[in-house]
Amino acid sequence: YLTSTGNTVIERDSLTAFADNAVYDRGTDELLLDGEARVESSTYDLVGQTIIMTSTEGESDEVRARIEAILTSESLHVSAPEIVMYLDQGAVQNLVAIPISGDEPSPQEAIDVSRPIATADDFELTADSLEMTSPSGALERIFASGSARSVSHARDSLNVESLPSYALTDWLEGDTVVVTFKPRSRGPVGVGSTGESDADYEVEQIVARVGARSFYRLLSTDSLAQVGIDPPALHYVVGDEITIHMNAGEVEAMEVLGQSEGLHLEPLSGTTNAAASDSIGGSPTDSTSVSPTRDPAAAQDDRGADATPNPPSLQSLSRRGRP
């Protein structure tokens, strides 16, 4: 064993490690950083009360941060009681954010009961556990398990002061949520990449399973409505499974599997910002039009040929399963 105490700094390959104390086991090639531990590389910073670095010949390296662990990279910010990274030649291939592992956590470890949360660009994902894959260092997928919730701020320009708090973001919930990313034209940027911007990727698809619920804002069909001044339309749907297809930050299509139901609220022409909260809240003076989530063609038949069609974002909404 090699032991260092007091403001320890260690340089190892392309990494620099800092801690109050450090212990290196030559037999297992394991490095323990204890007390305000931090590992810095050219592509990410990882902090925690303790960090354990393990290198196995012929296999991926493992870096494990425990207690108030935080990972910061160009594309992703992750916080959790415990973060485990698996690296291949210095590039992060997989990342797991979980509660403190082990049968008997120490009293200090037991204090950290925060839920794992990942933030990427205008996107936020929270669950009991998160698993991220980034082959070749490019962020590809995040799997969220256990009361998972994804939140998007990409369309916050649609907000007005009178919107209730639940309507200020787009969100999707389920027992599990899987988010798939795709690179933009300038190339991939990921957990361990060296790109210049954290906006070189975008969300391609979000899937919520088991008790899925979705809420999102969209432009009103009123041609005179002004973004940020007039309230947006609101869309809410529940189902066994919900898949949202995204394109450039906008909802391109939605699929709902199993028994489903929902609402689409469209502010009527002339609705003022001041009256929007009453309209959305469903007061006796409700001035919104409400339509259930169902097949657009069937809804058009019920309303008549002269009725206003469903918003473009809902034209590709499909439902499969029981009505």
Task: Please state how the strands of the largest beta sheet are arranged side by side.
Answer: 6-7-10-11-9-8
Q: What share of residues is helical?
A: under 10%
Number of strands: 18
What is the chain-wise order of helices and strands? EEEEEEEHEEEEEEEEEHEHE
Distance between the termini: 66 Å
The rounded Rg comes to 24 Å
Mean pLDDT: 77
| Poorly predicted parts | 193-199, 274-323
How big a fraction of the residues is strand? over 45%
Number of helices: 3
Structural class: mainly beta
**Oligomeric nature of the chains:** single chain
Main sheet characteristics: 6 strands, antiparallel, barrel
Judging from the principal axes of the Cα atoms, what is the shape? elongated
Biased composition (Polar residues): 269-292, 313-323
Region (Disordered): 265-323
Task: Describe the 3D structure.
The protein has three helices and 18 strands. The chain is mainly β. Strand 14 and strand 15 (250-257) form a beta hairpin. Helices cover 7% and strands 53% of the residues. Mean pLDDT is 77; it is low at 193-199 and 274-323. The protein has a domain at 115-320. It is elongated, with a radius of gyration of 24 Å. It has helices spanning 107-111, 273-281, 296-303; strands at residues 2-12, 15-25, 30-40, 44-54, 61-73, 77-88, 91-98, 117-120, 123-126, 129-133, 141-152, 170-183, 201-218, 233-247, 250-257, 261-267, 288-292, 318-320.
Summarize the structure.
This protein is 7% helix and 53% strand. The chain has 323 residues and is mainly beta.
